[in-house]
From TrEMBL, chain A:
N-terminal signal peptide: none
Record organism: Paenibacillus cellulosilyticus
Carrier domain residues: 5-86
Pfam families: PP-binding
Domain of life: Bacteria
Name by which UniProt lists this protein: Phosphopantetheine binding protein
UniProtKB/TrEMBL annotation, chain B:
Organism domain of life: Bacteria
Protein name per UniProt: Butirosin biosynthesis protein H-like
Lineage of the organism: Bacteria, Bacillati, Bacillota, Bacilli, Bacillales
Length: 86, 351
């Protein structure tokens, strides 16, 4: 899989996980504010746990700050960065 | 038909209801900041209290630390027993209070409050909430409460449901939970309260040095079961150690909420320093603001790790938290020492 395919694949998985956790009544867009959709710290941790399982990564303390999980786009970027390090 | 919704704003602390409700009201008036930042410094931990290891230390004049009164409230207090004896109508009290700009702080049975954890389980649970609105047309009362995921939210239910929640309630601590507070935010404090930098420095020294805090004569006679200031971190470490050994299991009340409170304590410190910078323009405190921002973010990470532990049960997380707490305690002590030294050397008697 090339880099571009990887990014797309990561994004699809992140989108799926976020939608499953937040359970909004509509599809969540890439730059929709998850906080405005009611994302709280417990849901955020659920997302993080699922991401760690899905991508076999460990999200370190610096990346455990809720503000880093504002959009699907920002989460995908974070995961991409962590996956690239493996 | 009248409808009143008294204002509420985002509180500086949400860890415990009595602070959250008080601060939600005070946040509506900028002048209250002086009182807030001169207080909300001290922390206390009751060493053997598994349910509330850490709280802000703001006791009332009877030594009760879970009250919501402040000099910024005019207040009246009734008890449920007294209302019953006088055969007063609960809904009339609520309407008259709210229509006269009184918020109402009281204990109810959450089994009757939709959206709460206990309502979803159909289990009795006495907890506090803050009434702040009433609509005569719909006969609904509006209130601030924690929902099932412990987020603070405003919602409304019919008055008769609130009345049921009020009367069909077994208190855990009758002496205090039997009380209804009618709270009115004052237009003016009634006396001059300037920000006292010397007082603030003294409180920070007391906090850093883990000394007992004495606000009235009752505080002088507490036994050794209390810890103050930075020593509360040791209570948290002890509790987490007990979790590691399987002696306790309550992560929510024992770790997550206290960790959240510690994060808020640092957030309030950041805001206090910003307030200081506004009023003492010759004091350059930006580096201290950065240090406490770092502490705040660190506690946010720890809190999130604690949530992760609650969701996964992974004991490695708790061991990590114990190490981090010990380190953060010394980091905070160091930051406080630098701040105190700086303020003392720049403080002049005329301030």
């Amino acid at each position: 899989m090339n880099v571009q395919d990887n990014i797309i694949s990561i994004n699809h998985s992140v989108t799926r996980i976020v939608n499953a956790v937040i359970q909004s009544n509509r599809e969540i867009g890439q730059i929709d504010s998850l906080f405005e959709l009611g994302l709280d710290s417990i849901q955020c941790m659920r997302i993080i746990i699922e991401l760690e399982k899905e991508f076999n990564i460990e999200i370190e303390d610096d990346d455990l700050l809720i503000k880093k999980y504002e959009t699907i786009s920002s989460i995908s970027e974070l995961v991409n960065k962590l996956v690239s390090k493996i | 038909m009248q409808s009143v919704l008294l204002p509420l704003n985002t509180p500086l602390s949400k860890a415990h209801p009595h602070n959250a409700y008080q601060l939600s009201i005070l946040a509506c008036k900028e002048e209250t900041r002086t009182w807030i930042y001169m207080n909300y410094i001290h922390l206390v931990a009751e060493a053997k209290n598994e349910n509330h290891p850490i709280a802000f230390f703001l006791p009332d004049n009877s030594g009760y630390n879970w009250n919501c009164v402040t000099p910024w409230f005019e207040y009246n207090v009734l008890t449920r027993d007294f209302i019953s004896e006088c055969r007063w109508d609960f809904s009339t009290i609520v309407k008259k209070a709210i229509f006269n700009n009184n918020y109402i702080y009281l204990y109810i049975n959450e089994k009757y409050i939709p959206g709460t954890y206990w309502h979803s389980k159909g289990i009795d649970y006495s907890h506090s909430l803050l009434l702040h609105g009433y609509n005569e047309l719909t006969n609904e009362v509006s209130f601030l409460i924690y929902d099932a995921s412990r987020a603070l939210s405003v919602r409304s239910i019919p008055m008769n449901e609130m009345e049921k929640a009020f009367y069909d309630n077994q208190y855990r601590c009758e002496r205090y939970e039997n009380q209804i507070y009618l709270l009115k935010l004052r237009e003016q404090l009634g006396y001059k309260l300037g920000f006292d930098l010397k007082y603030m420095i003294e409180q920070l020294v007391t906090y850093r040095d883990e000394k007992p805090v004495v606000f009235n004569v009752l505080d002088r006679h507490t036994d050794d079961r209390y810890r103050y200031g930075l020593a509360v971190y040791d209570s948290m470490i002890n509790y987490m150690d007990m979790i590691c050994h399987g002696l306790v299991t309550n992560a929510r009340e024992g770790i997550i909420i206290p960790m959240h409170l510690l994060m808020e304590h640092k957030h309030i410190m950041v805001e206090r320093l910003k307030f200081l910078a506004e009023h003492y323009t010759h004091l350059e405190v930006s580096s201290f603001i950065e240090e406490f921002e770092y502490l705040k973010k660190s506690f946010e990470s720890l809190r999130n790790n604690a949530l992760k532990f609650e969701l996964t049960g992974n004991p490695v997380i708790i061991s990590k938290l114990i190490g981090c707490m010990a380190e953060l305690k010394e980091n905070e002590r160091s930051s406080l020492t630098k701040l105190i030294n700086f303020l003392e050397s720049n403080y002049t008697e005329s301030e």
